Structure formats: structure tokens, C-alpha cells
Amino acid sequence: MVEGGRIRLNTWQQAAVAVGSAVGALLNPRRADLIAALGETTGKPAFERVLQRMKSCPEGRVVLLERPRVVSAKVGHAWDLPENTFGAAYARFMGSRNFSPDDRPPVRFMDTDELAYVAMRAREVHDFWHTLFNLPTNLIGESALKVIEFEQMYLPMCLLSVVGGTARFSEKQRKLFYQHYFPWAVRAGMQSTDLMCVYYERHFHEDLEDVRKKLGIVPAPSVP
Q1: Are 151 and 184 in contact (CB under 8 A)?
Q2: Which residue intervals of the chain are DSSP H helices?
Q3: What does the alpha-carbon distance between residue 191 and residue 63 come to, in Å, rounded to a whole number?
Q4: Which pLDDT score, from 0 to 100, does residue 148 have?
Q5: With b meaning 16 or more CB within 10 Å and e meaning fewer, what string describes 130-160?
Q6: What is the pLDDT of residues 17-62, one digit of tens each?
Q7: Does the pLDDT of residue 119 top 60, yes or no?
Q8: What's the pLDDT at 103?
Q9: Among candidate residues 33, 43, 45, 133, the one with its CA nearest the CA of residue 93
């Protein structure tokens, strides 16, 4: 049954969508819709825990109350902020890659409006995290960020993405990832504040390094 664009699935249907999405995503990792479906159909318990954490945090409660969206109409002012700010760094990250914040697929398989918003928020802050952790969008960078996302949210999809991503590494990439990026990502994900409780848009005007310090974020290491 579709309600407000969302689709209710029984247990067997969820399993079928999860398996189909997992296979499709492994065959074509660029299919953001399949990765999103996999995250939703396997991640409900994780999203419920994130929701409870957000409700327990003052800033997280404000996010849930106001439900900010990371779309061009809401974050476009970041392109006009001073160069040293977090917002400007985010704008550079997006602009240099010709990314649009409007490209994220919609949430389809969450049971409630609150869970749907949490799933959407997790999807939309992904590029904020890329910016703050200074991670590229290549296979190694995305795999490292998925490690951090798993440490933060315990989404099964993140673990599956790391397994699938590393399976496609060359021997040189695999050595680089496990010697440098993986140990850092595990530590970075654990020592950062609860990143799903952050109202990022309210920190756009702040100095990038100040935001990192405030959130306990250590950027990715330089590759020797």
C-alpha cells in the first residue's frame, strides 16, 4: 500500500526487496536507488535507535521538530559564504563534482513519517560528512565513509557496502585502504559526536576547523 509516496511491505516482501537490491547494487554500485532500498529494508531497527537518540538530544530534537531538508532551495546560500566556513567547504565539495543536493532518491519503505525523515536525513547529510571528514568520492573514500556511517548508525547496508566496495579494489587499493583508511575510519566514527543529532545547516557560517573540533572529527589522513 502506498501512503504519501511510501510503500508498506510485509516481511517476505521486505526480504525480497532487500535481496534484489543487494544483488543489483553489487552488480551496479552506481544505482543509488537500489542502495537506498537496501538501506531502508534492512535498516529499520538501526533507524529506530537513531530516532531515539535524536529524541534524547536537544539539537537532535530540534532537527526532528523542524525537519530541515538538504535541497538546493534550502542550502543554496552556502555558495555565498566566506571561504573558511563549513558551508563554503560544502559548496566547493558539491560544485567541484557537479553534484546537486536534489539528486537523492526518496524514502519509500519506512513505516512512519518520523522514521522516513530519519532515513532521509541520513541520506542527505552524507555529503556533509564527506566535507567534514575530507573524504573523496572515489571507491576508497566512499568505503571509508561507509565504515564511519556504520560506527555511527549500525546500518547493515553500510557493512555490506564496505564488503562490496573492497571486493572491487585492486591489490594496491586494498593495501592502501586497510593500512591507512580503515583504521582511521573506525577510530573517527567512534570518537566523533553523535553526528545524526547535528543541525548542520546552523553551522554553515562557522569556521570549518571549528566545526570539526566541536564535533570531534579528525579528517582523513594524508596518504604517504
Answers
A1: no
A2: 11-27, 32-42, 44-56, 58-66, 72-75, 86-96, 113-124, 126-133, 139-153, 156-167, 171-176, 182-191, 208-215
A3: 22
A4: 97
A5: bbbbbbeeebbbbbbbbbbbbbbbebbbbeb
A6: 444 544 454 445 455 565 555 556 666 889 999 999 999 999 999 9
A7: yes
A8: 86
A9: 133
pLDDT for the residue 8: 62
Mean pLDDT value of segment 60-74: 97
Reference 145, options 91, 74, 217; nearest CA is 217
- Rounded distance between C-alpha atoms, residue 125 and residue 15, angstroms: 27
Burial class (CB in 10 A: 0-12, 13-18, 19+), 34: buried
Q: Give 74-113 as a DSSP string.
A: HHGGGGGS-TTBHHHHHHHHHHHTT--GGGSPPP-S-SSH
List all residues 6 or more positions away from 192 whose beta carbon is below 8 Å from its beta carbon.
Answer: 148, 152, 215, 216, 217
How many residues are listed for the chain in this entry?
224
In 3D, which of 14, 155, 128, 154 has the Cα closest to residue 63? 128
Q: Which of 102, 93, 103, 100 is nearest to 128 (CA)?
A: 93
Cα separation, 18 vs 155, in Å, equals: 13
What's residue 44's pLDDT?
86
The rounded distance, in Å, linking the Cα atoms of 101 and 128 is 10
Q: How many CB atoms lie within 10 A of CB 191?
A: 12
